[in-house]
Amino acid sequence: MTDDITLERLWEMLTPTAERGEGEGTTWTVPDQPVPDDRVFGGLLLAQAVMIAGQGMPRGVVPLSLQADFLAGVPVTGLNRWHAETISEAPSLVSRRVRLVADDGSELFAATVRLGLVREDLPSYATIQPREVVGPDEVVDLATRHGGDERIPVWWRIERPVDLRHVEEPAFLEPAPVRSPDQSLWWRLRGELVGDPLRVAAVIAYVSDMSLLEPAFRNTGTSRHVVGSRILSLTHTIVFHELPDLTDWVQMDVTVARVSHGRALGAGELFVAGRHVASLGQLGLVKLA
Question: pTM for this one?
Answer without folding.
Answer: 0.96
